[in-house]
Each structure stands twice: as C-alpha cells, then as structure tokens.
C-alpha cells in the first residue's frame, strides 16, 4: 500500500514522527515502556512522552486506548 493510501485510511498515523511510529509498533507487540526504551536506547520516561504525544495527535484518552489502537492497526504500522 502506498503512503498516500495509508494517509487516507488512517490520517492520524500520517501525523506521527518516525520515532512515534516505532514506539507504536513496539506497543503493538505488547512491549512495556521499559522494554521499548531498552530496544530503542531511550529512557522509559521518553517512551512515556512519545505515548502521551501520540494520544494527543490521535485523539485518544489513556494508554490503554493507545495500546488498543496499536493492536487494531498493527498491520499498517
């Protein structure tokens, strides 16, 4: 699928930074903030900041909703 098709299907994903998309993809693999931080060589706090920023950009309330979104759209990440 080309990126413009993806933007039409999931417009919120287009607004995420590459790092946010990596974090989201790892969330879809059921990894914790600490595990994601170790894998990406960033602190767990930085992962939490990315998670909060993604929630704002995607219009989601709470980390559970972000995880739900990641799992639902796993194939598009």
Task: Break the fold down into its secondary structure elements and pairings.
Layout: H1 3-9, H2 11-14, H3 18-28, H4 33-40, H5 44-58, H6 63-72
Helix pairs in contact: 3-5, 3-6, 4-5
What's this entry about, in short?
The protein is 71% helix and 0% strand.
Keywords, please?
77 residues; disordered N terminus; 6 helices; mainly alpha; globular
What can you tell me about this protein's structure?
The protein is mainly alpha-helical and 77 residues long. It contains six helices and no strands. α3 (18-28) crosses α5 (44-58) and α4 packs across α5 (44-58). It is globular and about 30 Å long. Residues 1-8 have low confidence and may be disordered.
**Percentage of residues in strands:** under 5%
Uncertain parts: 1-8
Number of distinct helices? 6
How far apart are the termini? 11 Å
Q: How many beta-strand segments? A: 0
Shape: globular
Helix-and-strand structural type: mainly alpha
Q: What is Rg?
A: 12 Å
Oligomer: single chain
Report the biggest beta sheet as strand number plus sense, adding barrel if it closes: none
Helix content: over 70%
The chain-level mean pLDDT equals 87
The SSE string, one letter per element, is HHHHHH
């Amino acid at each position: 699928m080309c990126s413009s098709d993806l933007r039409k299907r999931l417009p919120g994903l287009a607004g995420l930074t590459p790092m946010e998309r990596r974090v989201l993809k790892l969330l879809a693999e059921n990894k914790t903030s600490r595990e994601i931080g170790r894998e990406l060589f960033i602190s767990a706090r930085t992962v939490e900041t990315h998670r909060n920023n993604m929630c704002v950009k995607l219009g989601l309330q709470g980390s559970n909703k972000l995880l739900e979104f990641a799992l639902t759209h796993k194939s598009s990440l």
